[in-house]
Amino acid sequence: MSRVVPPDAEGLRRAVEILRADSVVAFPTETVYGLGANAFSKQAIGEVYRLKNRPSWNPLIVHVASVEAARALAEEWPAVADELAARFWPGPLTLVVRRAGHLAGVGADNDTIAIRIPAHEVALRLLEASGLPLAAPSANRSESISPTTAGHVVRSLPDVPLVLDGGPCSWGIESTVLDLTTPVPTLLRPGALSLRVLRDATGAIALRDTETADGAARPSPGMSRRHYAPRAKVVLTPDVREADRSGSPAPAAILTYEGSAPPAYRQAGEPGTETSPAVAGAPGTELVEVLSADPREYAADLYAALHRLDDAGVATIFVQEPPDTEDWLAVRDRLSRAAA
């Protein structure tokens, strides 16, 4: 039987059967594909960490179908959580709250838990059909590029029992994570929802002023120094047209955005992969991925573009640094960790 199945009645039946047997299922969300497991099952959670080769200190986000289900996992549910849930759930926002005492093994090493309601029909149908809260990190090997299609999942995790194929993810980048256990809501991971949008609901948002060392306890995933990385070496550069290629393995590729592409591709048309002549003196030809200059659209295609370049067999990806503005915060975060 195929491991990649449509999210029809039979596909959902098989998925629920696997989840209730304390195994795992990959499923689509609006952000990236998740590797879901019963949040109450130590065996299933252990399988998530095993398949992903995920460090034990990296916590998981729990996905639920309703605000009531989220409250049931929390020891404390502050008023700001209700305000944010009303405005942004279902959606790409994860809230970190105090964890209920009866739930162990899923949250951070402290007493917190990260929760969200995904805005994807297949994810919601799976949550409702299973009746389970699903711990679901991205469905890929730890530190590698997050998957935005079912094909990405299978290539990264060939042993996953079942993948519900819901097509490409619309946001294409992980959820924004806010810590609500601090006096002022604190941004733990920039993501699909911008700070500007969130401030309209919460007022002030604090930013973490220190990095979390690998191996140290943390309340949210996505805080490791190296993450979201392709097999190819990633080099961030202020200008891909003048990047020093000496010492970087070949073949190389360029990842840039409209308005910053090599001259031959400024008028290349729709964003996508092009084959360019030598750029800045590089011998031979290079693949050039030209994404949108809109940060939301760029983010939606970032992981897919990195997957395409990896699949093409390039050894180095020279990436045009995005603007140093708040709108590009999530993209800059992903690229800096991929290049670490």
Automatic annotation (TrEMBL):
SUPFAM superfamilies: YrdC/RibB. It catalyses: L-threonine + hydrogencarbonate + ATP = L-threonylcarbamoyladenylate + diphosphate + H2O. PROSITE patterns: YRDC. Residues 9-193 form the YrdC-like domain. Residues 262-281 are annotated as: Disordered. Its EC number is 2.7.7.87. GO terms for molecular function: L-threonylcarbamoyladenylate synthase. InterPro entries: DHBP_synth_RibB-like_a/b_dom (IPR017945), Sua5-like_dom (IPR006070), Sua5/YwlC_C (IPR038385), Sua5_C (IPR005145), T(6)A37_SUA5 (IPR010923), TC-AMP_synthase_SUA5 (IPR050156). It is an enzyme of class 2 (transferase). It is found in: Cytoplasm. Belongs to the SUA5 family. This is Threonylcarbamoyl-AMP synthase. It comes from Actinoplanes oblitus. The lineage of its organism: Bacteria, Bacillati, Actinomycetota, Actinomycetes, Micromonosporales.
